[in-house]
């Protein structure tokens, strides 16, 4: 009986690998990217690249497990939703008001520890932000938002 259950589980897992995953594509186009088009301080650019860009840009670095079902489905979903919510690769497509609103939301979420998400930090411990980094990032976002209307 146990052997049969294990065989069924293995067949299901192997079968899941045959289901296509609609992983969002990447792009090398930086023409609308926040870092490429603005004078972002180096420490903030590093935070963006390390802690934000995998889900919130068109420059996602897919780890090996992003190609194995069922995790591949979750990764694709998270990246798709992250890009829909905020895509730093499309930053220059936003008007000043939308940029300022996004920056205010970013500051709040980073400061409160909501971003990066805990589930992301499990497999990306280098993306974890210190309290100092959270404060610096939030201050930068607020300052950048204000500078848009000067």
Distance between the termini: 72 Å
pLDDT below 50 for ≥5 consecutive residues: which ranges?
Answer: none
Task: Give the proportion of residues in helices.
Answer: 55-70%
Number of helices: 7
Kindly give the count of domains: 1
Q: Main β-sheet, in a few words?
A: none
Share of β-strand residues:
under 5%
Number of strands: 0
Order of helices and strands: HHHHHHH
The residue-averaged pLDDT reads: 92
What would the principal axes of the Cα set say about the shape? elongated
Radius of gyration: 19 Å
Structural class: mainly alpha
Write up this protein.
This protein has 150 residues and is an all-alpha fold. The protein has one domain (23-147). The protein contains 7 helices and no strands. It has helices at residues 2-16, 34-37, 42-56, 71-85, 96-111, 118-123, 131-147. Helix 5 packs antiparallel against helix 7 (131-147). The protein is elongated.
């Amino acid at each position: 009986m146990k052997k049969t259950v294990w065989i069924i589980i293995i067949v299901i897992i192997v079968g899941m690998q045959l289901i296509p995953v609609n992983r969002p594509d990447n792009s090398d186009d930086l023409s609308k990217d926040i870092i490429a088009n603005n004078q972002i301080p180096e420490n903030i650019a590093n935070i963006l690249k390390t802690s934000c860009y995998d889900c919130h840009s068109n420059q996602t670095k897919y780890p090996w497990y992003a190609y194995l079902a069922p995790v591949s489905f979750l990764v694709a979903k998270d990246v798709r939703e992250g890009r829909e919510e905020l895509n730093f690769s499309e930053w220059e497509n936003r008007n000043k008001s939308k940029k300022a609103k996004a920056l205010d939301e970013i500051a709040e979420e980073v400061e409160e520890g909501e971003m990066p998400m805990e589930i992301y930090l499990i497999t990306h411990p280098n993306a974890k932000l210190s309290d100092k980094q959270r404060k610096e990032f939030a201050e930068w976002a607020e300052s950048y938002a204000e500078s848009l209307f000067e």
